[in-house]
Amino acid sequence: KKRNPGEPEFHQAVFEVAASLMPYIVANPTYEDMQILERMTEPDRTISFRVCWEDDEGNIRVNRGFRVQFNNAIGPYKGGCRFHPTVTQSVLKFLGFEQQFKNSLTGLPMGGGKGGANFNPKGKSDREVMRFCQSFMHELFRHIGPDTDVPAGDIGVGSREIGYMFGAYKQLTNRFEGVLTGKGLEFGGSLIRTEATGYGAVYFLQNMLDQKGVDMSGANVVLSGSGNVATHAAEKVNQLGGKVLTMSDSAGFIHDPDGISEEKVNWIKNLKNVRRGRISEYADHFTNASYHEGKRPWSVSCDFALPCATQNEIDISDANELIKNGVRGLAEGANMPTELDAMHAFQAAGVLFGPAKAANAGGVAVSGLEMSQNSARISWKEGELQDLLQNIMKGIHDSCHKYGEGKGKDGDTDYVAGANIAGFVKVADAMLAYGVI
Ligand code: NDP
């Protein structure tokens, strides 16, 4: 905390990982002798820069952009960019720190990084977003490259923003190369990248349930968010026979006791991605649905929970309410949506808990596959990619299970410890091979 003052999100992420890694490190003293965890908590570099742009009224606006290049021991830095007013160095360091473990878990050769800006795309015109993205890339382009650092989307950065940024990079460098992932299919994007994080989170939940012989069909699922991850998680729950009861945005949540079917999910995608409206409109449109302003959906009774909006959206009282109402499993679609004491409460209650770095790794895994396709200048078919995603999620589950087996309540699997250790080992061993640098 002394080394990184004023960075609470970063402290939270490091504390969580260190707590479950320490017994493993003590049992394998080379990691401690070589200060591997200490080195992994310091980014290789953090770049912070001015992003200056002109709004539609001709006013000059100034934002702060960042790229945190955390660790490239096992591959080029890789991780999304977030555009949101809450973006700070601390938030991006927490995300970049987590990303190095997550990328390692996928089994693909990707290091960890994260970036973004404290820019609020809400209420901005298309042209304003374009000018912002171009200005952001005006500095970022000199720090990235297909073998150096490959950014992608995150909150507030979807296919529109990736298109503007890729266009700017191409113009600035005069190179057409796989420098960003999440691109449009016309210019090097991969099929199923858009769906991958949400689908992957549900596959991870399903893998944990398979281990216990539990079926998802007919189950009630409470889900938060209504963005990329949330809508695709909802789609996959429907495909596997579950019933999605809630979705949300930063203003409140909707509860639909009839279930948010695939057709209704498509309506939400249109509302959010095309009309850029609010989730409250759902309750005006669909009978029996209700809207709860300023509230989160965790009070609705369910079998499984999928937090897919943002960090720290489940606190201890939310966790206690979910447990009281009978939740049996949770997979984190968002990054660090569960506060530490809430996570401990779930684990103590024997709730299957799939941590973000494992459960939401499907997106970056398909981004890794997009990088491979770009390097080879080919495009794989949808079926091949669907199979690869399912296999990668199963592989991640099995690694977490292997390293977490017997470490949980009553000898159960501790997926949090399992994910941290499994993600750590590959990066740590590469760092050992490089010596002291
Ligand atoms: P989107 O921008 O598409 O959607 C974000 C959703 O979360 C929106 O519904 C948004 O509501 C809501 N939200 C944002 N901030 C808050 C807040 N402070 N309180 C409550 N709700 C909030 O982002 P994604 O779906 O891409 O990302 C969601 C999460 O998943 C993030 O944690 C991200 O880091 C993580 N993730 C995303 C990946 C991806 O492939 N996209 C990959 C791995 C992780 P509103 O519309 O009101 O802003």
UniProtKB/TrEMBL annotation:
It comes from the Bacteria. The record marks D154 as: Important for catalysis. The keyword Chloroplast does not apply. Catalyzes the reversible oxidative deamination of glutamate to alpha-ketoglutarate and ammonia. Homohexamer. NCBIfam families: PRK09414.1 (NF006929). This is Glutamate dehydrogenase. The lineage of its organism: Bacteria, Pseudomonadati, Pseudomonadota, Alphaproteobacteria, Rhodospirillales.
